[in-house]
Amino acid sequence: MLFEDRLGSEPLRIDILVIDGFSLLSLASTMEPLRAANRVSGRELYRWRLLGLGGRQATSSSGVPLTLQESFQPSDLGEVLIVVSAFEHERNGAAALPLLRAVARQKRIPIGGVEAGSWILARAGLLDRYRATTHWEDVEDFALAYPNVEVVRDRYVIDRDRFTTGGASPAFDLMLELIRSQHGPGLALDVSSIFIYDESHPGADPQPMVSTGRLDRAEPRLTASIRLMEERIDAPSSIAELARRAGMTARGLQKLFRRHLDTSPGAYYLNLRLAAARRMLELAGRPVLEAAAQTGFTSSSAFARAFRRRYGISPGRVKAR
């Protein structure tokens, strides 16, 4: 198994399939912990190649071209394959599907997906009857699209010979777990320290919609309220209920949001719901009425007014773009 003690002195050979539209941060989070492990240990523990689909170059989501080392060939792979993808994965990753199926038939090696790499693996049928995750923005659509996959909201998932992550930071956590399981917690801690990465998260931690950072420690009641809002996007709780569950008065919650976020809890909650609706329209192509209902709006006209105030455009025009 991949995530267990590594025996022998040979480096683990990892192939990384980079799909056009990939996130630079997700790719770096996959590779850089391996480089740091080699540096800190003074040995070549990991060796990796960057592979492409039919060429030697891929372009990142931010427009940066990346030179790749080899073209992806199922017959010429190392011990592990990782697919890194982000935007427009349906179009950009289509050519990978038959190749990935061939790998699964011929090689029997661990295969992983970073961010939208999970979607590509699922489309190829490589995640059927496996637990898996993807970026938190797409978890619900991923579950609807692939009912044979046990989709969870975890930061990363390791299930037998498959592993998937939710994005850049979870990919970093996954690679730390690989290093920890193969070479011990001391090396994983040293690698984490090189990047001044203070909080390594276990895979089962959920992916939040909002990364609250230092607020978790500075004001846990505020963080708890935000998490409750995230859980009730489709059926919003009242501010009084949020305050009660945070163990304070509604007035106290108002002051807390104003002090730390310079807004009211009601306005913050509304913006969370509108942002979720916009993702449904832009990324998933949901109908306007469906996006409104799934973000807690009982009136389509109220949804349209709130959306236009927030984004300066109607929800219908966002969906049409």
What key phrases describe this protein's structure?
alpha/beta; seven-stranded mixed beta sheet; 2 domains; Arc Repressor Mutant, subunit A; 47% helix; single chain; Rossmann fold
Give an overview of the whole structure.
The chain is an alpha/beta fold. It folds into 2 domains: 12-194, Rossmann fold, CATH 3.40.50.880; 215-320, Homeodomain-like (Arc Repressor Mutant, subunit A, Orthogonal Bundle), CATH 1.10.10.60. It has helices spanning 24-41, 89-92, 96-106, 117-123, 139-145, 168-183, 185-194, 215-218, 220-231, 239-245, 250-261, 265-282, 288-294, 300-311, 315-320, and strands at 12-18, 46-52, 57-59, 65-67, 70-71, 80-85, 111-115, 131-132, 150-151, 156-159, 162-165. The chain has a 7-stranded mixed sheet, with helices on both faces. The protein has a two-stranded antiparallel sheet with strand order 3-4. β8, α5 and β9 (150-151) form a beta-alpha-beta unit. α1 (24-41) crosses α7 (185-194), α6 runs antiparallel to α7 (185-194) and α12 runs antiparallel to α13. The N and C termini lie far apart (45 Å).
Give the structure's gist in a few sentences.
This protein has 321 residues and is an alpha/beta fold. Helix content is 47%, strand content 14%.
Ends distance? 45 Å
CATH superfamily of the largest domain: Class I glutamine amidotransferase (GATase) domain
SSE run: EHEEEEEHHEHEHEEEHHHHHHHHHH
The total tally of domains equals: 2
Please bin the fraction of helical residues: 40-55%
Which CATH class of the largest domain? Alpha Beta
What is the SS-derived class?
alpha/beta
Indicate the overall shape: globular
- CATH fold label of the largest domain: Rossmann fold
Strand order of the largest sheet: 5-2-1-6-7-11-10
